[in-house]
Design brief:
mainly beta; seven-stranded mixed beta sheet; four-stranded antiparallel beta sheet; globular
């Protein structure tokens, strides 16, 4: 498995922006599919975005398309989530996740970070 640590969460007003970061260590990062998920109180964990190991291919949940951008820097073992035009419904704990193979979907991630809280006020 790979160790993941998220950072960059916080409190922001609706319409604002935040950039989340995820630092990875332990497994060869450049071979991993990386993703972001989120979970709010009382709700199921929700897929947000995923990125291929090259960074060329991405996939987004419909709820965040054209507002969020996932990216990665394999030289730094980092993955990012740029979040723009934030809405109160984006409030959640955001988790970074990794898997060694598969498609850019929500299934079969085997490494997870502890999460970072994002709160969007109206």
């Amino acid at each position: 498995q790979v160790q993941l640590v998220e950072s960059g969460g916080g409190l922001v007003q609706a319409g604002g922006s935040l950039r989340l970061s995820c630092a990875a260590s332990g497994r060869t990062f450049s071979t991993l599919i990386m993703a972001w998920f989120r979970q709010n109180l009382g709700k199921e964990r929700e897929f947000v975005a995923a990125i291929s190991w090259t960074g060329v291919m991405t996939n987004y949940a419909n709820s965040v398309k054209r507002r969020f951008t996932i990216s990665r820097d394999n030289a730094k073992n980092m993955v990012y989530l740029q979040m723009n035009s934030l809405k109160p419904e984006d409030t959640a704990v955001y988790y970074c996740a990794a898997k060694p193979r598969g498609t850019l979907d929500a299934a079969a991630y085997d490494s997870w970070g502890p999460g970072t809280q994002v709160t969007v006020s109206s």
